[in-house]
Write a structure and sequence with these properties.
Elements (H helix, E strand, L loop, with lengths): L1 H17 L7 E6 L4 E5 L4 E5 L2 E5 L4 E5 L3 E7 L18 H11 L6 H7 L9 H13 L1
Antiparallel strand pairs: 1-2, 1-6, 3-4, 4-5
């Protein structure tokens, strides 16, 4: 496990050095199951505890089991392929419910956010998507 943690630290440090002259918005973690979780880089701190990576930024805190991670990368925009993670913060929470409600009420959202907001995949953003996220939260 120590070897995995050391490799993660070296990878993050090497990546940070390589991208020092480039501005990126998020650090994305690709899991072995194919899902991707992103965290904004503002205030980004990564610590390791009990075989987990604990990721904190100015907006949220998330925990990822190291044995589920495939690779990580910096990107220009946050991405998430976790069903229900509408705001792409790496967690399914009431914030995702609020994001869908905001879109339903007319708030502007980019295409990626609108795609994530269509939780039930019916090509519409409705109260059914709100219910789908609430079901996901309750199942956690």
């Amino acid at each position: 496990m120590k070897k995995t943690i050391i490799m993660m630290i070296v990878t993050v440090m090497a990546t940070l050095t390589a991208v020092a002259d480039t501005t990126y918005e998020s650090l994305s973690f690709s899991r072995k199951d194919g899902t991707v979780v992103s965290y904004g880089v503002d205030g980004l701190k990564i610590t390791f505890s009990n075989s987990n990576a604990v990721i904190r930024n100015n907006e949220t805190t998330g925990t990822l089991a190291l044995n589920t991670l495939d690779y990580m990368y910096f990107s220009d925009a946050a991405t998430s392929s976790v069903t229900g993670d509408v705001n792409a913060d790496g967690e399914i929470s009431v914030a995702d419910v609020n994001a869908i409600i905001d879109i339903i009420l007319g708030a502007e959202a980019d295409d990626d956010t609108r795609e994530r907001a269509d939780v039930n995949g019916d090509d519409e953003i409705t109260v059914a998507d709100v219910n789908a996220v609430i079901d996901l939260i309750l199942a956690q």
